[in-house]
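Sequence only, no structure available. Ideas?
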Amino acid sequence: METEVLKKIREIRGIIQVGANTGQESSLFRKYTSNVMCFEPIKDVFISLTKNNPDFICYNFALGERNEIKNMNIASNNGESSSFLKPLNHLTQFTSIQFTHTESVEIKRFDSLGIDINNFNVLISDTQGYEIQVLKGFGDFLKKLDYIYVEYINSELYEDCSSLDKIQDYLKQYSFNLDSIYPENSNWGNVLFINNNKQLKN
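Reply:
I predicted one. Tokens follow.
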């Protein structure tokens, strides 16, 4: 995650990170808030996440559009490229990364968890093309958020992955505007959305 993103946000009450992996961005988060909630569904990776971040609130399940059990395609790069979506161009563009097996994963809607979202105002999601499903699972809780930073994929790295246009169109109904795009290359990257009622630092 780009350091400049958190620097420009006016207020951070708490961060919700979906697809936290082992917590590679933990030290960056701690510079701005001690209130961090992480979701990481892969069992072995989750063990490392909690060991590295005993002060974070961590959950060993995925977030999505509905409560269900679903197979996740597990990637060989310590799970970083793992996705519920079928890998397509990823297989030819990143030949060093293999999808070795599947793991049965529990998925829950965020709005079914009974969490007081008022303690959090920043959502960060990196779920390898599954962003739309994650956002839908928040339901009207999205209205409580001030900032949403998500990954987008405009190419078919995975089947039916969440493009920038799809994400932007979905978030419009919750009064989020696209503020900044942080491309990794011409096909994917990350993007910051801001609630209409919030302003960034100058």
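Helices lie at 3-8, 26-30, 43-52, 90-93, 131-138, 164-172.
Hope that gets you unstuck.
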